[in-house]
Amino acid sequence: MIDTIVWQEQGIQQAAETLRRGGLVAFPTETVYGLGADARSSEAVAGIFGAKGRPSDNPLIVHIADRSQLGELVEPYPALAGELMERFWPGPLTIVLPAKPGALSPLVTANLPTVGVRMPDHPLALELLSRAGVPVAAPSANRSGRPSPTLAGHVLEDLGGRIDGVIDGGATGVGLESTVVELEGNGAIRILRPGGVTEEALKRAFPAVSVISEAETGEQPAKPRSPGMKYTHYAPRGELTVVQGPEERVISYINLLAEEARHEGMKTGVLAFSEHAGSYRADLVLDLGSENRLDEAAHRLYAHLRKLDEAGVGRIWSEGCEPGGLGGALMNRMLKAAGGRAIRLDR
Ligand code: TXA
Ligand code: MG
């Protein structure tokens, strides 16, 4: 056990020095809190895997504050990658680029020839990264298998005593991890992980480019291109099922199953949009916000999953949403948290 320091904004210089010394520093981004270490140092990066209990074949995203840092990290990349940076950085877009051999710890890339890079859109993250002056590898700052942290308190719950410190920047904005994209040889953009930059936004920005999206379901492709997609991430301790269909049917179905579960002595929970939250009978009903504001649901989802754990809820049902816009990323995370358990009710 080590003492984990909680830094406020004034502590950023100390946090940056901790990173430069090879320490582990959690910091807020616009998506979720990340757990950072110097991406060039295998010793430092090994600390991330140790603290998180993360499988080592899952590569990490490298965070930079300035495009001038790219030269030492990656090989020449397609012009489209530069245009993506121009349009979406700083922001929730990770771009998979050809890695410069020897520039990064092989633990960061999990020995792939590529590296995922992003510039986070958060003033404290950018300040930390530029003061540290080193490329910072940072996965989400949760124990592996737990929901990603959207508050400094979540980081402490999972990693307190295991990392050097966390910068407290309050609640993160988007609430879901960045969109990860790869550029295909034929010039297409492939979305490996849906996130804050939506498929629609990519198509709007580059109408002449084809944008390919991997399955939005929780089903596991046989050989995932983004290694992280094959793990059951973000899982609450209770058993979660996503239910979709006409609202009346969804409500009565969930209420029926919740009543049965309660008879069996189980604590029950429901994640519902504001429009229907009052219609559920469960021990804990958590409001995702309006179904017309999926950004709000994205912002709340992970904190809600943690609350369900804290309350010791054994069976959870969540309303689903349509896959347009942020709905794609939201459903992707919900289905992952549910380990793929989903039910679609007919009319
Ligand atoms: O929003 C985010 O991206 C957060 C914050 C902290 O920046 N970070 C994050 O990191 O979500 P992590 O490690 O939890 O997820 C990284 C994802 C994984 O799905 C991983 O497989 C994929 O990015 N990835 C990383 N490098 C890759 C590469 N070279 N090729 C394909 N996928 C890669
Ligand atoms: Mg993660």
What descriptors fit this protein?
binds threonylcarbamoyladenylate; 11 helices; eleven-stranded mixed beta sheet; 347 residues; binds magnesium ion; DHBP synthase; globular; five-stranded parallel beta sheet; alpha/beta; Rossmann fold
How does the SSE layout of this entry go?
Elements: E1 5-7, H1 12-20, E2 25-27, E3 34-38, H2 42-52, E4 61-63, H3 79-88, E5 93-98, H4 106-109, E6 114-118, H5 123-132, E7 136-137, H6 152-159, E8 165-167, E9 179-183, E10 189-193, H7 199-205, E11 211-213, E12 239-244, H8 247-263, E13 268-272, H9 274-277, E14 284-287, H10 294-310, E15 315-319, H11 327-337, E16 342-344
Parallel strand pairs: 1-8, 2-8, 4-6, 5-9, 10-11, 12-15, 12-16, 13-14, 13-15
Antiparallel strand pairs: 2-3, 3-7, 4-7, 5-6, 9-10
How would you explain this protein's 3D organization?
The chain is α/β, with parallel strands linked by helices and 347 residues long. The protein folds into two domains: 5-217, DHBP synthase (Alpha-Beta Complex), CATH 3.90.870.10; 239-344, Rossmann fold, CATH 3.40.50. Helices cover 31% and strands 19% of the residues. The strands form two sheets. It has an eleven-stranded mixed β-sheet with strand order 1-8-2-3-7-4-6-5-9-10-11, with helices on both faces. It is globular. Magnesium ion binds at residues 139-140, 148, 233.
